Automatic annotation (TrEMBL), chain A:
One of its GO terms (molecular function) is ABC-type transporter activity. Keywords: Membrane, Transmembrane, Transmembrane helix. It comes from the Bacteria. This is ABC-2 type transport system permease protein. It holds the Pfam family ABC2_membrane. GO terms for cellular component: membrane. The keyword Transmembrane helix applies. The keyword rRNA processing does not apply. The chain crosses the membrane at residues 35-54, 61-82, 88-106, 118-136, 142-166, 178-199, 232-253. It comes from Umezawaea tangerina. It is found in: Membrane. Residues 28-218 form the ABC-2 type transporter transmembrane domain. Its main location: membrane.
UniProtKB/TrEMBL annotation, chain B:
One of its GO terms (cellular component) is membrane. This is ABC-2 type transport system permease protein. PANTHER family: ABC-TYPE MULTIDRUG TRANSPORT SYSTEM, PERMEASE COMPONENT, NODULATION PROTEIN J. Its main location: membrane. It is a multi-pass membrane protein. The keyword Transmembrane helix applies. The chain crosses the membrane at residues 21-41, 47-68, 89-111, 131-158, 170-189, 221-239. It is found in: Membrane. InterPro entries: ABC2_TM, Nod_factor_ABC_transporter. It comes from Umezawaea tangerina.
Automatic annotation (TrEMBL), chain C:
Keywords: Antibiotic resistance, ATP-binding, Nucleotide-binding, Transport. It comes from Umezawaea tangerina. One of its GO terms (molecular function) is ATP hydrolysis activity. This is ABC-2 type transport system ATP-binding protein. PANTHER family: ABC TRANSPORTER ATP-BINDING PROTEIN, ABC TRANSPORTER ATP-BINDING PROTEIN NATA. It is a peripheral membrane protein.
Amino acid sequence: MRYLVRTSTVLRYSAANAWADFRASYTWWSWTFGWLGRMLAQVTFFAFVGIMLGDQAQLRYLVVGNAVMTCVVETMSVVASSSSEGRIGTLPLLSAAPVRLAWVFLGRSVQWPVSGSLTALVSLLALAPAFGVHWSPTQVPALVLLVPLTALSTYAVGLFLSAFVLTASGARNLLSNSAYLVMMAICGVQVPVDFWPSWVRSIASTLPLTHGLAAIRSVGDRAPVADVLGQAGLALACGVGWLVMAVLAFSLLEQHSRRRDAFDFGG
Amino acid sequence: MRLFRDAFRFQAALTLRSPDTVHVLVTAPLYTVVFMAISRHAHRTDLAAYAVLAPVLMSLWSLALLTAGDLISRERSRGTLEAMVATPASFPVVVLARITAVTTISTVSFVESWLVAWWPFGVVVRVEHPLTLLWCLVLSALAMAGTASAMSALYVLLPTARTLQNSFTYPFYLLGGILVPVSYLPEWLRPLSRLVFLSWSSDLLRSALSPAPVVDELPRLAAIAVLGAAGCAVGGLMITRILRRVRSTGTLART
Amino acid sequence: MTDAVETRSLRRTFPARAGRGGGEIVALGGVDLSIPSGSVRGLLGPNGAGKTTLCKILSTVLLPSSGTASVLGHDVRHETLAVKRSIGVVFGGDRGLYGRLTPRQNLQLWGALYDLHGRALSRRVDELLERVGLSGRARDRVDGFSRGMKQRLHLARGLISDPRVLILDEPTSGMDPVAVRDFRGLIGELTAEGRTLLLTTHDMAEAEAVCDEVTLIDNGVLLATDTPARLAARLSTLERVEADGVADDVLAGLSALSGVSKAHRETGGRVVVHTTTPAATSEVLALLVSAGVTALRTVRPSLEEVYLHVIGDRGMLVSP
């Protein structure tokens, strides 16, 4: 119980740090016209691929997949924002504090899945109808739950990856972008997961996006509630699995740094 | 010309070591995988050429913009911009040469993209009109450099534009018809897209990979050249204006 | 008096980087250090002497290669958590703070990391802001702070867990003189509260002003430990005579004396004579008095001179 109170306090103040960062990098104007605009253009880009293919089902598939994808793109920014701790010199101080690094970093970049969920919901609810993808009022609450679930469970994947570039910040953009492109390719965003050979399918099945997106598509297809819940449960389970991996990765990183002197002191 | 060559070499060495370049060379094949998967899944093997070309233009565009965004502002933050004004070298030429080095390097992604189509997708994309392809790639790289030099000047004159740097990608991929030809765009957008050199490049590159004879090759190449030169002229004018400001105020320290 | 910090044969090596012919670099070569509880110990040495490596090991950020180190009796290698709870780390410079947060938010976050929450946390944060004089700026972003203000926030951050032992790594680097004076005042208060401080610096005046004892370190080896005054006295054979109104021929005579290492005239006209034995000092004084010079005095070496004498006058060189 005491541990829970402690950890939630760490998460809360870390999240305040995340929010301050977000406020410093975006105004509402630059978020709307810079970030949101860019992401809507990306969804539109793939929607036009659907139009070129000349098939309504394909178009629908691409629009829904890429709209949800926007929350993944933004969530993977956790890799870059985590590595900023190295630049501002707080890593050795964090390492000297009696706390698990993973909890600090879990709160530290939570602005991305939150903003990403917002982007994805705008894409699904405001942009998708322009391409013939409509939602009934009864479907909307499900989307409002499933999109943040997808974003947060994917956040755990990003957190895991960020442990590896914490002290090698040169690779941060490369890692985050490659990771989201791989997810874009194999998680059922552009083509069904079945398209891929079995080994690729098994990788995809460990990624929360695969299941979160499947749940959202099920909502769109008016599939039975049990199907939706089943996929949502899988997304959640994958997210928890990745979170456990992330906690382990941060512990290993800390041990490695104590041996190798990877955290530089001030100056 | 010698100045251009030296600046080109300098930037080429810099770019080959930069993480941004590695970034583009790693992500281009991943984009090819995504686009190839879409066309294969839709049983549209005729779109394979599109899937190979789009990532090339995306690399060209994004790497040039990244470099342009960094180039002048980095010189400025290092304080070397003021020093450069003092040298007899023509600064616009230096900027242009350096961006050209970047765009030249990014055309390597064509090879990567082609290889990805071949393996794992088993599609051999034939270059039906190699000379057209070559000319088009060279002219596009130059046009890109011209456009990017205008951008780099814009970033200095209008620092807020840099925060929007990310947004200069997909809208232009769409307008430039890099994957979906401009003819699929709504009627009202088409004239606008014709002002983006990418739309001419992407169309002509697709023609170069298609067995049908290339029609109007020269006018289309000329369109790329003209739009590139226009960008270059605007960029040159803006850079000259910036330099004049440096000379009169002694500094650019304004954010 | 028990020791708050104790190291025995503490050694830390790093693999040499490529191009240096393999082997290893010895950052700390078997250091035995004892810091009594409640004292201020200065660790004085040039860049690359091993000061920061020692601080890192004591703050559990780095593991020793061999030997032991303990803080308040807790081993840094095995009782990491207990060590972390008993020390505070402060380093100088701009790094290590969240610039986009206010000082209050910074302290709240670090307090949460040190197991504080709820009312206890807000009380502690208020106290510290008051103490370092940042209450008035508690709602401003740290980005806009001066170096001195940032450093005071750093100190508050290091004190958030009310640690018995504080490690201060070059805390005043880059501060202006007024900020340095205020900072030293704060250090005095901390000692009065019975905390143990380890302060690394390469500023002799600072070590002399605030430390109970000073340890000289170079190339990973401790050279000497003593109070600043006794360290100087140890080298009392090194003395200096300063005199005004000395004629040139007298100066030449002084230079000729055995036991005089150096005699020269400063820009203001004052003559400075360095001697290496007490006997030589007497001879110098006798000669000056007989020449009718009355404005003269003998000067004990400053810690800086001791430092230069022991470590060598290497200027800004960083040892390999």
